[in-house]
Write a structure and sequence with these properties.
The chain has 133 residues and is of the alpha/beta class. It contains four helices and six strands, in the order αββαααββββ. β4 and β5 form a beta hairpin.
Length: 133
Amino acid sequence: MRATLALPALLALLAPALPAEPGLTLVLPAEARPAATGQDWIAQAVAEVLSRDLAFLGLPVISNEERQRAHEVLEIPDVAVTRATSIRMAEALGARRVAVGSFGLEGARLSLSLRLLDVELGTLSAPLAAAGP
């Protein structure tokens, strides 16, 4: 299965949702919905591809290497984190928003749902969803 097939549609939804002056964005690995447990590679792939694609669009994004270093420095395990921990990581990295979400698998169909968490305002956007084979 290729996890990147649904990302172009999701990226098309996510990019306009970012303000003109977005500041840094931290993209966290997506959380697996119960039916998709054991597919941790998809969570990492979503974070890596989305970070790369947002950077390609010219949006300032924290690299996956920086995110992983933050996990180490802040002594946070590299697992799904709570909203409070994601805000702590964003503040430590100087990010103004965090892309958080979840993914599910139904047969060969991957569905993604992402939300933007505004660190300064403490608000969460409506879900941005995409699905594909």
